[in-house]
Amino acid sequence: MPLFEYRCNACNTKFEVLHKSLSSQEEVICPKCKSGDSKKLLSSFSASVSGHHEHSAGGCENGSCCMSGVPGGCPSAGMCGMN
Questions:
Q1: Residues 36 and 58 in one domain
Q2: What confidence score (pLDDT) does residue 34 get?
Q3: Is residue 23 part of a domain?
Q4: Does residue 33 form part of some domain?
Q5: What residues make up the domain containing 81?
Q6: Would 10 be classed as within a structural domain?
Q7: Do residues 65 and 55 make contact, with C-beta atoms less than 8 angstroms apart?
Q8: Do 7 and 36 sit in the same domain of this protein?
Q9: How far apart are the first and last CA of the chain?
Q10: Residue 47 domain-assigned?
Q11: What is the pLDDT of residues 7-39, one digit of tens each?
Q12: Rg of the Cα trace of the chain?
């Protein structure tokens, strides 16, 4: 089920709508003012990783984390959230 983010053109409220499928998207109604005039926003992608990670000494701050198999060490310059 795809989750889309919208902004109401009438009251400027930002809200999310969970559609049943990509092919059948229902009419989008603002939960605050009940207007049908809204714009789909470009949402950022989010993913979570579960499992046990072994970290190298120093964590990601020095670029040597459990992603050390990636050429160049930590691919996100210490910002991967794995520390």
A1: no
A2: 97
A3: yes
A4: yes
A5: 54-83
A6: yes
A7: yes
A8: yes
A9: 32
A10: no
A11: 999 999 999 999 888 777 788 999 999 999 999
A12: 20
Query: Are 58 and 32 part of one and the same domain?
Result: no
In the structure, what pLDDT confidence band is assigned to residue 67 with cuts at 50, 70 and 90? Answer: low
- Residue 38 DSSP symbol: E
Closest CA to 31 of 14, 47, 46: 14
Residue 53 has pLDDT above 90, yes or no: no
Q: How many CB atoms lie within 10 A of CB 16?
A: 11
Work out how many domains the chain is built from and give that number: 2
pLDDT score recorded for residue 22: 77
- The beta-carbon contacts of 58-67 under 8 Å, at least 24 apart in sequence, are 59/83
CA distance 61 to 20: 41
pLDDT of residue 28: 93
Tokens linked to 23 = 């092919």
Residues 31, 58: one domain?
Answer: no
